[in-house]
């Protein structure tokens, strides 16, 4: 019980500093180290097993961080860096913008405003698989789709609510959180995506779109004052002007961001080819092919070589932000486990009559609360999901029943937090309050969350 009490105090401390806008990595590292130190001080457990120990339990604290860096940077970290670098490269050459512009073109021809709104939600959630930044993708849609929705007669806040939730499910083989989730349950990312994320994700996206159709239409009618000021905001107009400066590219460039997924799915579904295509290989092939296309298009080797710099910079950015966050979160989780807090929590839950499914709801609630407080789905997910395999084993359920809902809900809850980057960016571009925007996203996201959990239980329990 002492370990659980210490854990509660430390978690509250973490929440306090994250709310004060402290970077998540040093806060999580510090919290994990403090918990491991207190584990040794009070004799609550060991830090590392004998085979991994340095011989000094105090040095084992730092050794656990070293081992986490070694294990994560080599495999998971490399996948995250390659995909992140590829995404930056696509942005820099204008391929991401081309993908969005071509994809939304048919929607502009439809006349029913709320049908277009719902279709924007569906299309956006598919396009989000190929653009890794939720806030960046949200801003891109504010430039391209927001003016269309507003001029069709949708209120500004309804249009923003849909755009802010286009990355809400967070599915796809390119997401760092999805890659980590797959690794935790012992799967490659593509089988995890196809077997688990696709069936649940499709139902979640459908629920989100249908909810937006009815909720936004009802609230627009109920609050006619929110229909005022239909002119596109100055912020969006300024972003449109910036977008005009983006490089003009051939239409086929819209296919380039999708190349890794196309390659992985094609060879994964056609095993008779004899070729094993993982996400790293597919991403590297796509990068080299894109570089060749850029060279042939511009007939300028120097430009092609300079432009690939966006890829290297993107890799470095992912290492500095995502990979370090994964290791910091594992250190935090290691501290919780070493204190015995998780064992105590599970024992208490079992004594209270909670089964494995009850533990799933407990962890989903923790993820939602933490994401609302921090505004970061990734920070919350990486902090708590490493506990899932241990909790699942002790609760007698498959790890995927914990990992999959946590994976989806950490992204869904982000669209409810007024301090999430995507909410701030989208609301700011339209001159709205993030809090007002969160009120508009609440019902659709809540419905999508309920459907997500229900479908997970129906299909996989």
Please tag this protein with its features.
461 residues, mainly alpha, 22 helices
Structure report:
Helix content is 75%, strand content 0%. The protein has 22 helices and no strands. It has one domain. Helix 20 (400-414) runs antiparallel to helix 22. With 461 residues, the chain is mainly alpha-helical.
In a few lines, what is going on in this structure?
This protein is mainly alpha-helical and 461 residues long.
The Rg value, from CA coordinates, equals: 23 Å
Structural class: mainly alpha
Let me know the number of strands: 0
Main sheet properties: none
Shape descriptor = globular
Number of helices: 22
Low-confidence stretches: none
Annotate the secondary structure layout.
Blueprint: H1 2-19, H2 24-41, H3 57-92, H4 95-104, H5 113-127, H6 134-144, H7 146-152, H8 156-164, H9 176-184, H10 189-222, H11 234-244, H12 259-269, H13 279-298, H14 301-307, H15 309-339, H16 341-351, H17 356-374, H18 377-384, H19 388-395, H20 400-414, H21 421-430, H22 434-460
């Amino acid at each position: 019980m002492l370990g659980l009490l210490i854990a509660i105090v430390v978690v509250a401390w973490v929440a306090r500093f994250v709310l004060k806008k402290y970077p998540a990595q040093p806060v999580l590292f510090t919290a994990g180290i403090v918990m491991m130190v207190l584990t040794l001080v009070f004799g609550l457990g060991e830090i590392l097993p004998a085979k991994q120990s340095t011989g000094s339990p105090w040095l084992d604290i730092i050794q656990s961080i070293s081992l986490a860096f070694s294990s994560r940077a080599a495999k998971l970290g490399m996948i995250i860096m390659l995909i992140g670098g590829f995404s930056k490269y696509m942005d820099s050459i204008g391929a991401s913008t081309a993908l969005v512009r071509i994809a939304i073109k048919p929607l502009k021809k439809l006349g029913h405003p709320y049908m277009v709104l719902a279709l924007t939600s569906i299309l956006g959630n598919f396009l989000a698989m190929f653009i890794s930044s939720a806030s960046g993708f949200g801003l891109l849609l504010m430039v391209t789709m927001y003016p269309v929705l507003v001029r069709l007669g949708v209120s500004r806040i309804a249009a923003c609510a849909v755009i802010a939730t286009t990355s809400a499910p967070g599915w796809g083989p390119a997401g760092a959180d999805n890659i980590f989730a797959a690794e935790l349950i012992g799967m490659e990312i593509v089988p995890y995506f196809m077997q688990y994320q696709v069936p649940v994700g499709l139902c979640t996206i459908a629920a989100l779109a249908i909810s937006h159709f009815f909720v936004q239409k009802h609230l627009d009618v109920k609050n006619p004052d929110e229909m005022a000021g239909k002119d596109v905001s100055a912020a969006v107009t300024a972003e449109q002007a910036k977008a005009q400066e983006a490089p003009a590219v051939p239409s086929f460039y819209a296919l380039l961001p999708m190349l890794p997924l196309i390659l992985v799915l094609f060879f994964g579904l056609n095993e008779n080819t004899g070729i094993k295509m993982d996400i790293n290989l597919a991403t590297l092939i796509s990068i080299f092919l894109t570089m060749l296309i850029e060279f042939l298009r511009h007939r300028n080797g120097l430009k092609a070589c300079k432009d690939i710099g966006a890829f290297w910079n993107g890799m470095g950015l992912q290492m500095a932000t995502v990979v370090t966050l994964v290791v910091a979160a594992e250190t935090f989780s290691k501290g919780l486990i070493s204190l015995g807090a998780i064992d105590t929590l599970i024992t208490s839950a079992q004594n209270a009559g909670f089964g494995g499914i009850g533990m799933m709801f407990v962890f989903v609630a923790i993820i939602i609360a933490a994401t609302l407080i921090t505004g970061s789905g990734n920070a919350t997910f990486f902090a708590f999901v490493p506990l899932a395999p241990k909790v699942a084993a002790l609760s007698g359920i498959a790890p995927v029943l914990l990992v999959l809902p946590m994976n989806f809900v950490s992204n869904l809850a982000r669209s409810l937090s007024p301090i999430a980057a995507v909410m701030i960016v989208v609301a700011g571009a339209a001159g709205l309050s993030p809090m007002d925007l969160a009120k508009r996203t609440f019902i659709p996201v809540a419905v999508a969350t309920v459907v997500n959990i229900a479908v997970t239980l129906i299909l996989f329990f």
